[in-house]
Design brief:
By secondary structure, the protein is of the alpha+beta class. It has 3 helices and 13 strands, in the order H-E-E-H-E-E-E-E-E-E-H-E-E-E-E-E. A 9-stranded antiparallel sheet has the order 3-11-1-2-8-6-7-5-4. Strands 9-10 form a two-stranded antiparallel ribbon. It has a two-stranded antiparallel ribbon with strand order 12-13. The longest helix is centred in the N-terminal third of the chain and has 12 residues. It is globular and about 40 Å long.
Length: 205
């Protein structure tokens, strides 16, 4: 077994994203990144990601989604405000299929996330890593990086969609999904009325 996998802590929590490319199984590091994992699981339970697109594709690097506006400028956390980064010495962006929080700067995490398509060490200690795509579904995740994109905007011409999200293993027994009318994101003219309006564009160095 590769030393990469041996050095990583065990996962706790599992979610399946049903997408137009196929199902993507994700295991979570809920002990090492509890805020990010709680946020992701609750948003999945609430149907927040349903019918959202992967709005950004950088072939050979990352695919990004989780914005209900589809613009790259929307999305909020379950906490009603951006939450802080979580870094762990045993979690490193060293291969494809890793799940991280997209942000527009330090401690600016909301709902947007990305999946790596390769090793991305330049994101270490800049973006929270909180999950990993497992099994054969890794090849489904890699399909998200295929297809034509607008090189100027990094938007796919025919974006893939998250049809629904299912939580298979919830390590946070106290989570209570919010009713729809209590969810904090409110849209006006396709843009969020509250929260950061900055585009959450992780950058290569």
């Amino acid at each position: 077994m590769s030393s990469i996998y041996v050095s990583e802590p065990p996962t706790s929590g599992k979610v399946v994203l049903e997408t137009t490319a196929g199902d993507i199984e994700i295991e979570l590091w809920s002990k090492e990144a509890p805020k990010a994992c709680r946020n992701f699981i609750q948003l999945c339970m609430e149907g927040y990601y349903n019918s959202t697109i992967f709005h950004r594709v950088v072939p050979g690097w990352i695919v990004q989604g989780g914005d209900p506006t589809g613009t790259g400028e929307g999305g909020e956390s379950i906490y009603g405000a951006p939450f802080s980064d979580e870094f762990h010495s045993r979690l490193r962006f060293n291969r494809r299929g890793l799940l991280g929080m997209a942000n527009a700067g330090p401690n600016d995490n909301g709902s947007q996330f990305f999946i790596t398509l390769a090793s991305t060490p330049e994101l270490q200690k800049k973006n929270t890593m909180f999950g990993v795509v497992v099994g054969q579904s890794l090849f489904t995740a890699l399909k998200l990086g295929e297809g034509e994109t607008d090189k100027a905007t990094e938007r796919p011409v025919h974006p893939r969609t998250i049809l629904s999200a299912r939580v298979l293993d919830n390590p946070f027994s106290d989570i209570v999904p919010r009713p729809k009318h209590e969810q904090t994101l409110q849209l006006k003219d396709g843009k969020p009325e509250s929260g950061s309006a900055k585009r959450k564009r992780i950058k290569a160095q």
